[in-house]
Amino acid sequence: MSIRRRIWQYGLFQIPALLLAVCLIAAGVAYLLRLGCPDFRASLFFGLAWIALMWTLIMPMDYFLKFVLKLNMSLAGRIAILHAIFWTVLISIILASTLPALNNLCTASEPFSLDWSQWRANIWNEMFFSSATGSVPIGSKADFSFVVSENEQIEEIQISTPEPDLEAYVRSRIESLEGKKLLEFVPGTRREVVLYESSVTICKNDSRNCGEPADPSDYPDTE
Fold this sequence. Notes:
- The protein has helices at residues 11-32, 38-56, 58-67, 73-109, 117-128, 164-175; strands at 141-149, 154-160, 193-201.
- It is mostly helical and 223 residues long.
- The protein has two domains: 7-109; 117-218.
- Strand 1 and strand 2 form a beta hairpin.
- It is rod-shaped, with a radius of gyration of 35 Å.
- The N and C termini lie far apart (75 Å).
């Protein structure tokens, strides 16, 4: 003796129904908690939820067509499946045409990072790499800072060193940068002035790492 199972007991109903629930929860979480790009994620999961719903309705629709509208069993099944396929194709086309625009809009609104490290390294190299030091004592060191404005002007030069010759040398090298294209700010920045801080040590030519150019990793700075 066979027992007729209810619609909800079939895998053809259970699997898409489970996917429907998962997609609805994911869409709600993405939208309410504003995760990642919420409009993109919510639209994607709502679209997938609609497709899952259409496949969930295959067996209820088949039952309705057969026992309520009295259609042929084979015809009712084909109509129910074609209905699900129609919505799957239509929603896929809609998602494919709208999601890229939503993603681009979201990406454009995300904050971006500007790297100033190379800019700072280039300035040090312009001032000191392979430049003549004249009568500056070997082993002397100077810490210095200055402010660069957005029109490539240098202001507020500060130099800390016990050696007058080194101070004069560093000052002349800083002032030599005035108005140079090298000082142009990183494109897209919101900075109007930049404080530049560094140091220089006068070493022997055979000293370890003496005469090496500055590297961007020496001046980590992001905006």
